[in-house]
C-alpha cells in the first residue's frame, strides 16, 4: 500500500516579514486615522466664512462604514469685533452608510445628531438670513458626509430664538426635540408623489409640538404636505418675550397653534390657527407696575375679554394663506371675521381641520358671496 504524500505550504521568511509589516502598517494607519481626520476637520471649521468651529474628538468605525464626531460647536463670528455667538453645537454626530438602502442597491448615508442645539439670534432672524445660515450649515455637513443623506435623525435637540439686545433678554426654544426623516433620496417608492417622510416632536413650555410631513425633496420646487400642532404652552413661562416685545406680562394663559400647508408646482395653500385660553393679563402680581404699564396692560386685558369666547374662555382666529411663493395672499379680513365669529357665535375648534392636502393646491376656490354679517353670524361648518 502506497502512502499519499502531503505537501505543507510554508511562507518564506521574507514573505512573513512583508505580511507582518503590512499588518503593522494598517494598525498604525488605523490608530493615526482619527487624529488626521480630526486635524483636517478642525482646519475646515476654522476657515468657514463668518463662523468658527471646533471638534474635540473623532471616532472611526471602519467595520460599519461610519465615524462619530464628538463635542462639536460652530459659532457665528462678527467680522468687525471678532466676537463669537452661539450658533450650533452637539454632543455627538454619527455619520454612516445606510445599510438598509445599500441592500436595495443605493449607496447613501445617514446622519444621527445627539443633543444638538441650534440658535438663531435677532440679527439673523430675517428669513433670508435664516436661509443663508441653513445653507452654510449644509455646506459644512456636506464636507463631513460626501454621500447623499437618505436618513436623518435628531435626539434630544433644541431650537432657539435669542435676542440678547432686548430688555429683558429673550431666549425661547423648543426642547427635547426628536426628528426623523427617511427616504430623502428616494431609494424606494420612486413612483410615489411624496416618497419621503419627516416626523418631529418637542416640548414647548409645559406643552407639546408634533409635526408630520410627507415630501419630495428631489423636486425643483417645494413639494410637500404637512400638518403641525402646538398644544398647552404655558404663556407665563414666556413673559420675558412678552415684556421685551409687547411691554406686557401674563399672569395666566395657555397657547395652541394648529396649521396645515401643502405645496406643489410653485404654489401653496394652508392656514395658521392660533388659540389662547384662560388669558389673564392683570393680576395681583402687577401691583408694583408703573401707572402707564398698568394702563397698557388694562387695555390689552380688556381687548382680550371683549374678543374671547366666554363659554370656552378662548381667543382664536384662523389665517388662511395661499398663492404663489412670489405672490402670497394672506386673507387678513377673513382672519378678523374669524376672531369675531369665535368671540360671539361659535368657538373655533382647537385641532387640525384636515382640509389641506397636496391635491387641493392650485384648485380654484368657490367664491364666497355672503356679506360680512352673514360670514360672522352664519359661519361655514
Please provide a written account of the structure.
It contains seven helices and 14 strands. With 381 residues, the protein is an alpha+beta fold. Helices cover 26% and strands 39% of the residues. It is elongated. The protein folds into two domains: 46-188, no CATH class; 221-381, no CATH class. Strands 1, 2, 3, 4, 5, 6, 7, 8, 9, 10, 11, 12, 13 and 14 form a 14-stranded mixed sheet that branches. Residues 294-303 have low confidence and may be disordered.
Taken from the alpha-carbon principal axes, the silhouette is elongated
Radius of gyration, in Å, reads 28 Å
Integer tally of domains: 2
Distance between the termini: 102 Å
Short summary:
With 381 residues, the protein is an alpha+beta fold. The chain contains 7 helices and 14 strands.
Amino acid at each position: 500500500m502506497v502512502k499519499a504524500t502531503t505537501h505543507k505550504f510554508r511562507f518564506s521568511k521574507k514573505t512573513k516579514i512583508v505580511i507582518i509589516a503590512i499588518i503593522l502598517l494598517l494598525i498604525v494607519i488605523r490608530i493615526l486615522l482619527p487624529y488626521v481626520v480630526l486635524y483636517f476637520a478642525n482646519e475646515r471649521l476654522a476657515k468657514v466664512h463668518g463662523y468658527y468651529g471646533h471638534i474635540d474628538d473623532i471616532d472611526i468605525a471602519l467595520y460599519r462604514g461610519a465615524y462619530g464626531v464628538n463635542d462639536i460647536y460652530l459659532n457665528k463670528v462678527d467680522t468687525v469685533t471678532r466676537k463669537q455667538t452661539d450658533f450650533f453645537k452637539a454632543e455627538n454626530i454619527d455619520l454612516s452608510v445606510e445599510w438598509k438602502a445599500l441592500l436595495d442597491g443605493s449607496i447613501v448615508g445617514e446622519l444621527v445628531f445627539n443633543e444638538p442645539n441650534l440658535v438663531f439670534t435677532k440679527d439673523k432672524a430675517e428669513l433670508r438670513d435664516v436661509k443663508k445660515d441653513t445653507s452654510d450649515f449644509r455646506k459644512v455637513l456636506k464636507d463631513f458626509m460626501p454621500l447623499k443623506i437618505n436618513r436623518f435623525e435628531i435626539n434630544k435637540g433644541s431650537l432657539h430664538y435669542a435676542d440678547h439686545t432686548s430688555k429683558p433678554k429673550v431666549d425661547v426654544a423648543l426642547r427635547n426635540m426628536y426628528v426623523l426623516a427617511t427616504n430623502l433620496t428616494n431609494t424606494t417608492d420612486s413612483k410615489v408623489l411624496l416618497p419621503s417622510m419627516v416626523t418631529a416632536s418637542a416640548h414647548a413650555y409645559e406643552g407639546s409640538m408634533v409635526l408630520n410631513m410627507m415630501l419630495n425633496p428631489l423636486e425643483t420646487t417645494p413639494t410637500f404636505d404637512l400638518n403641525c400642532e402646538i398644544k398647552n404652552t404655558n404663556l407665563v413661562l414666556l413673559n420675558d418675550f412678552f415684556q421685551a416685545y409687547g411691554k406686557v406680562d401674563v399672569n395666566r394663559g395657555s397657547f395652541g397653534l394648529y396649521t396645515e400647508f401643502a405645496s406643489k408646482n410653485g404654489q401653496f395653500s394652508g392656514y395658521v390657527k392660533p388659540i389662547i385660553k384662560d388669558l389673564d393679563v392683570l393680576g395681583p402680581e402687577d401691583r408694583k407696575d408703573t401707572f402707564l404699564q398698568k394702563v397698557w396692560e388694562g387695555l390689552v386685558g380688556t381687548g382680550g375679554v371683549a374678543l374671547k369666547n366666554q363659554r370656552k374662555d378662548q381667543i382664536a382666529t384662523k389665517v388662511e394663506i395661499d398663492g404663489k411663493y412670489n405672490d402670497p395672499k394672506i386673507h387678513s379680513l377673513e382672519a378678523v371675521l374669524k376672531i369675531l365669529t369665535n368671540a360671539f357665535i361659535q368657538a373655533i375648534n382647537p385641532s387640525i381641520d384636515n382640509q389641506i392636502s397636496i391635491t387641493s393646491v392650485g384648485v380654484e376656490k368657490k367664491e364666497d358671496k355672503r356679506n360680512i354679517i352673514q360670514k360672522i353670524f352664519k359661519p361655514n361648518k
